[in-house]
Every structure is written in C-alpha cells, then in structure tokens.
Amino acid sequence: MKQFLLALQFLTIIPVRIKEVAEENIAQSMIFFPAVGLLLGVILCACDGLLSQLGLIRFCADTLLVGLLIILTGAIHLDGLADTVDAFASGKDKDGMLRVMRDSNIGTMGALSLILALLIKIGLISSLASAKYPALILMCVLSRWAQVCAVFFLPYARGEGKAKLFIKGMNRNIFIFAGLSSLGIIFIAWRIKAILVFVSAAAFTWVCLKCLRRKFGGATGDTIGAISELAEIVVLFSVIILEGG
Predict the structure, then answer these.
(1) 149 and 209 Cβ atoms separated by less than 8 Å
(2) Into how many domains does the chain fold?
(3) Does residue 244 lie within any of the structural domains?
C-alpha cells in the first residue's frame, strides 16, 4: 500500500504525503505506476460522462479532459517533453543538451512541441467513437508503463537527480510485475485489440530508448516524461486505427 501511495505522490498532485521513505521503496513504487494510470483513466472516463450531460460540443469537452489530466499530473511530463525537445533542437553535444534540459526556461521549439502535443491529443480523443473509454484507460496505463521501461532499460544520464533513485533501485521483478499488470488492465478494458496497442506502444518506446541511449547515454527525468507524453499520442492513434477493425 505504501508503494502505491508513493506512486500516486510521484505521478499526481493528489494530496498524499509520505514523510519517511526508504530508498528501495522509491523504485518499488513503479510496480504501481500502471495502477495509477488506471486511476487517472477512470477519473477521465467519469468526467467525460459528466461532461456529456452538459451538452458541450465534443471538442470543448475533450479539451477539458486533456486539461484535467494536465492538472492531475501537475504537467510534469509536459515539462519533460518541452525540455527534451529544446535539448534535441539545440544541436549541442551530450553535455550541452543536458545543460539545456536543466534550464528552467522553455525555448521556442519546446513551446511548439507542447502546443502540438496538446492539439494532437485533443484531436485524437475527439476522433474516437465507441472505444473512447478504453482508449482513455489504455492511454493512461501504457504511458506510465513506458516510464517503467525507460527506467529499466536505460542508465541514468546525469551524475545526480531525482530519477536516479528510480533507476538505481529498478530490478527485473519490478519491470515484469508492472508489465503484467499493464497487460491485465488493458486486456480487461479492450480485450484482444488492447494487446495490439500494447505492441505498438512497446515498439515506439523501444525506438525512443535507442534514440536516448545514442544521444544522451541514458535517461533523465525529463526524457522519461517526454516518452510518457508521446506514448499517450501513439496509444490514441493506435486505438483509432483499430477501432474500425
């Protein structure tokens, strides 16, 4: 239970505060990242049901859904996306890109990436038909699972940082359990088609990890957040493709 509350604390702004945390519990909390994704997905589905009763046009309602997700997560993954894009766009070497990611200011390319990511996400959600609720669940669960993959497969790219504690304590059991729980959740949500979405998310994550290893030599908190945001888009796009099948 403590690890779940830690995961909730790390991934959301839901008021959970655990004062004393053992170092090994930090990585172990990643077992419950997919469960936190499920909670976020259920909240989005419930709010979508409420918004549908208000008579709002679909685009407005879906914009509010995306806004709610941003609020619930404290926009931490979006911040990571912007910083990562700024680093790639800088054209610097590894150390230079890591310094760019440390900069608290968002550059032009980072800002554009945020705008595009949000517009694409809203547009994709608005394009969903009967599979909207499964899509919201899959989006939230598999994007958190992608974070677990990044922590498991990549070393830490910096000397110190918050994400180092996750990577330092990560092990095969955490990775396997998080993967199996993700598969179980999404299979219940959308049956066999969910497995195909899982494969597409896994393939995309693998490509991202190869790129990050080549460019940075590993992962940072920002790059993990960027993978999560982009994985949400990939999942939504995959559901739309499979929805009519």
Answers:
(1) yes
(2) 1
(3) no
